[in-house]
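Good morning,

Attaching, inline, the backbone tokens for the sequence recovery test we're adding to the shared suite. The designed sequence is right after.
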């Protein structure tokens, strides 16, 4: 029982860390600008990252 509680605390901390990283990455994607002209970047180039974030969000919702 003690080990289970310890594992639970560790997993909750890891989950919070993942949520924070996910939030940070989402904010970064929303704020991407073109280095040449400063206008918002086209997210087509970010499709892999966006897909990764969507998968991560789905995984976090399941937990």
């Amino acid at each position: 029982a003690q080990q289970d509680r310890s594992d639970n605390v560790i997993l909750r901390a890891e989950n919070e860390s993942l949520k924070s990283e996910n939030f940070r990455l989402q904010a970064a994607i929303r704020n991407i600008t073109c280095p040449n002209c400063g206008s918002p970047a086209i997210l087509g180039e970010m499709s892999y990252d966006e897909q990764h974030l969507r998968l991560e969000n789905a995984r976090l919702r399941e937990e």
